[in-house]
Amino acid sequence: MKPKEQNTQSTNDLSRFKDLALEEACDVLRAYMFQRRQITFLEEAVALYYDPISDRVFLEDEQLNVAMKDENGDLKQWATCRVCGIEGFKDAHEPKFVDEALCMQCCVRDE
Length: 111
Ligand SMILES: [Zn+2]
Fold this sequence. Notes:
By secondary structure, the protein is of the alpha+beta class. It has one domain. Helices cover about 20% and strands about 25% of the residues. The protein has helices at about 20-35, 105-110, and strands spanning about 45-50, 55-60, 65-70, 75-80, 85-90, 95-100, 100-105. The strands form 2 sheets. A 5-stranded antiparallel beta sheet has the order 1-2-3-4-5, covered by helices on one side. It has a two-stranded antiparallel ribbon with strand order 6-7. Strand 2 and strand 3 form a beta hairpin. It starts with 18 loop residues before the first helix and ends with a helix. Bound molecules: zinc ion.
């Protein structure tokens, strides 16, 4: 599996997390504590990151698989289309993704 481009604005330096991001980090870690046995898309070297631009806290492994908390507080796989850059939960209905790096629209356009 080829690594996707690293998101350079994200940080794992806790001193750079805003207060609200630290609170979110607690929730993400708690969700990970309960869910990690069921989460199959995260592999080795999982770490906590904060993106100050999008104000998101997430988990990312060494293959750059990303887990983000959904509205129910569950960790779900986050997808970013490598063609158009659209983002969302991989299993969401809108936008729809073929896999964690390609949206349905770009997949259809390629054919
Ligand atoms: Zn796309």
